[in-house]
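I had to read the description of the data format several times before I understood it. For illustration, here is how one protein appears when written out as sequence plus structure tokens:
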Amino acid sequence: MSASSGSPPHDQLALPAVGLLHALATSPRRRFAGLALRIARRTPGVRRASYDAEKFAVALHTDGGSTAWLYLSNVYRETAGTPRGRRRERLSQLMRLMTVPSTADGWAAVRPKLRPVLRPQTFGQGGPPGIRPPLSRAALPYLHELVVVDRPEAMAYVTPARLPEWGVTADEVFAAARANLAEIAGRALDRPWPAGPAMISMVDDGDGYFTSLPLVPGWLAEVGERLGGPVLAFVPDNHTLLLCPLPGDAGPVYGLVETQFQQAVRSLSPVGYVTEAGGRVIAYAPPPGHPHEIAARRAEAVLAATEYGSQTDWLTRQYEEGGIDVHIGRLIAAVPPAGPAETIATWVDGITSLLPAARLISFVRDGEVSFRVPWRHVAEHVDLQPEPLLAPARYRVGGWPPPEVMARLRDHRID
């Protein structure tokens, strides 16, 4: 869900209203889009509404001259199987929220309403050309921290455009949001906790910001103090925080979390997180041979493949539309019969490509794999520079490195 000012994209459908609605009535997705379009045209403050089939989105052209885009994929999945009245109610609610004129609240008024939230790195990509993504910063591998304004009906993401209006910096916005979250985290710690190791599921009703709580330094460690030992935290979707005692048999938990992550409408991460010295939360990475190594490495690979897969699809479309001849390399997640999962990227000699970061790099020439090398050794011997503005990171490569460098890389080959 995002908004932008200006005219709709040039590839938008331009059929007459009756013909368009007739065309939308031939599949469940199109019928849903037709319902959304009808509701949009009846929403107060909407001057005109149009549908973009390729984006599966409705453009709301408001009386104020702006254009808000409602992307239908998530709400379509959220309301699948629900009564028509519920779908209509949810669509109406979203459109009312998107067409409310932006408030003129100053910094003093908005500051207490700020909250940090965790989102996938690829969150928000694929919007209309020219739209500015929300304010964000790196938080955990493949996850970013964003800031929202907490409103009674929904939350609104803070964009960089709001900073000059408020007269503050991005650091001040994140600091204020973290301070507000710390108060919520303190109240969560004051709740009754089991007097020993226990599995705890915290499901957010929209006001608890449970999946944000690990962002508060020391919070997860304090939970461990109450439960009598270290805790492994999972955030499979935007609303669920699962706390699992360590040590313990976390393998089955990883399996359940991965299923929930794969099935969630708004998935977040299948990875487990622990607290390190100083209270900061990091991804759980047990050492080789540890009972949890296989499950943890699989979760890491699933998250990496999911995020790079979304990015690959989006970048491929963008480059094709722009006529840019650059190959967008795919990240492959491989699970061997014995041993932990691996992520693999391919460096093809003579082809300009954007290489994803992977545990292993396959060097390919004339369609044949010459050898594979762990990423750490490639980064040690090759000056790889990340492509600007891409998250997750990619590295522009072309021909193989010089022969003397390739010889050193072959010394680290994995057969």
Observations:
- Residues 2-99 form one domain.
